[in-house]
Amino acid sequence: MADLARLSINQATTREQHSLAQAIAAYAGAGVTGISIWRDKLADCGLGEAAAMLKDHGLRVSGLCRAGQFPASDAAERQARLDDNRLAVDQAVALGAECLIVVAGGLPEGSRDLPGARAMIRDGLGAVMDHARAAQMPVAIEPLHPMYAADRCAINTMSQALDLCDELGPGLGVAVDVYHVWWDPDLQAQIERAGDRVLAYHVCDWLVPTTDLLLDRGMMGDGVIDIPQISEWVDGTGYNGLIEVEIFSAENWWKRPADEVIRTCRERMLSSV
Ligand code: ZN
């Protein structure tokens, strides 16, 4: 049974119901410990205003979403993305985020060169890590389910993410999101391998059937992932940080009243995580 004090809610879970300011107030008001923030919502709110509100409400920030998106067709665009990654590091520091989430990026438009895209990810991440280390901001690579390899993220397994951590050194770790990695026959071994490099733990559920590959994530307990088993493996590494509920659900949870969504997150943390 997960400890309610470890509950963080990724603001995408109430993306349609809340601005960032509204999400901060609502989560804190419901006794939730943390929030994960998206940069588009942050831009609407303003960095200074968001940082002040977080402090006033005593909310922890389990992560800032997101940096990454390294592969691009030309050098100018790749450089622009590096600049944006460094800005994201600075924003994460200003918010007191516990890590910066990296979604690495997929194939550049028109490309079929998957190894080339992965090389751009390695080089881009390597170039950003100097700044992140100087700022003392941990960077979490989030492997995404292989169905997103083309358009979102060509890092698709814990093993790939940890190989990058091994190669690029300190300051880098992984975000374990059950939605992306639950199917992996090597998951337990790779979580053990990660050890103290688990920087974030994201939960939701895989629905059967899934009607949309991006926007039909389930509430914990409504799908087929053995979340308590994965939680045990993650906690077995010594990870005792926040557990973040992250649900993109265009046809279900985004259409419900926010207080019902938050209440359900709290209940399912206790029953299904
Ligand atoms: Zn996630």
In a few lines, what is going on in this structure?
With 273 residues, this protein is an alpha/beta fold. Helices cover 43% and strands 15% of the residues.
Listing every helix as H and every strand as E from the N terminus to the C terminus, the arrangement reads EHEHHEHEHEHEHHEHEH
**Highest-level CATH class:** Alpha Beta
Query: What form results from the Cα inertia axes?
Result: globular
What is the makeup of the main sheet? 8 strands, parallel, barrel
How much strand?
5-15%
The unique ligands bound to this protein are: zinc ion
Share of residues in helices:
40-55%
On the 0 to 100 scale, the average pLDDT is 97
Q: By CATH's scheme, which homologous superfamily applies?
A: Divalent-metal-dependent TIM barrel enzymes
> In CATH terms, what is the fold-level topology?
TIM Barrel
Helix/sheet category: alpha/beta
Which strand order does the major sheet show? 1-2-3-4-5-6-7-8
Number of strands: 8
Tell me which CATH architecture applies here: Alpha-Beta Barrel
Number of domains: 1
Description:
- There is one protein chain.
- The chain is α/β, with parallel strands linked by helices and 273 residues long.
- The protein has a single domain, classed as Divalent-metal-dependent TIM barrel enzymes (TIM Barrel).
- It is 43% helix and 15% strand.
- The protein is built from ten helices and eight strands.
- It has helices at residues 20-29, 39-45, 47-57, 75-95, 114-134, 158-168, 178-181, 187-194, 227-236, 258-272; strands at 7-10, 34-38, 60-68, 100-103, 139-141, 172-177, 198-203, 243-245.
- It has an eight-stranded parallel barrel with strand order 1-2-3-4-5-6-7-8, surrounded by seven helices.
- Helix 9 (227-236) links the parallel strand 7 and strand 8 (243-245).
- The protein is globular.
- The chain starts with 6 loop residues before the first strand and ends with a helix.
- The model has no long low-confidence stretch (mean pLDDT 97).
- Residues 142, 175, 177, 202, 246 line the site of zinc ion.
- Zinc ion is lined by residues 142, 175, 177, 202, 246.
